[in-house]
Amino acid sequence: MFSHILITSRPSQWIKNLVVFIPGLFSMNESWSFQDYNSVTGILIGSTFAFFAFTFITIAIYCVNDIFDIKNDKKHPVKKNRPIASGRLSISKAIYISIVCIFISFAISGFISFYLSAAIFIYMVLMLLYSCFLKGVIFLDVFLISSGFVIRVIAGAMAIEVPISIWICLCMMSGSLFIAVSKRFSEIKTSEDNFIFQRPVLINYSILIKKKSILASIMGMTIIGYSFYTIFADNLPDNNLMLLTIPSVIVGMGRYFYLVTESDLGENPESIVVNDFVMRIAIVSWLLLVGGILYFWR
Questions:
Q1: pTM (two decimals)
Q2: Could you tell me which of 112, 149, 202, 171 has the C-alpha nearest to residue 15?
Q3: pLDDT tens, position by position, 215-225
Q4: CB proximity list for 248: less than 8 A, separation 6 or greater
């Protein structure tokens, strides 16, 4: 039973919730500093609680999503083995797990702040609407996925009571949109004509995103948006050293684009981030550069 619950909770995808730490990183030496032990502790505690609050709410959403997707998952070569689709985890037990996780999530977020709980609630409502109805609406489905990442970032800022830049939200929106569309691209490419039965909305995407130009355009938009952020954001160092972080973004997104279009890995974004050496180097170098520049020059 525990293994079925663990598989349904998708632990490999919990990495997405790490974006709640981004506001803490970008508020270094603005809202807190390493010289102030109390401020560092507050940032770590608030961000960590936000991470776990989102982890439990996403587990609840995954359970609901798998319940509503039973019919389509049974037609998928891989998803048919999910515990709920295969019958190893009953619907009643999945509902119970979902309710318990929702309660835990709100208990954690409520301990930190009302605003974090409000963000969790908005995220939950949007994702439930997505799972139940809106995943079948072209464009709206991928924008809802993107909005989930933006909510995470805003919630991360609320949890530690720091300001959040509109630039970060825009970059997160376009970046997560790139990942969401990449997933649709891979689903269509790898399932050939079966996507019509596995996820009906894909038939609406099939003509639009079979061409790589759509993904390339979104990738370019994200890189340009991030570049503008490093130049025009008011709270960044005046020496424009943040421009040094742009190559890491270009390498990371370029590598992701290659793995999606040439290796058909877009259905599992978390596996790309965790398993690909180039992606790990790009992410780590970006984190080190951002952290070093804000530590020494802000």
A1: 0.90
A2: 149
A3: 889 999 999 99
A4: 282, 283, 285, 286, 289
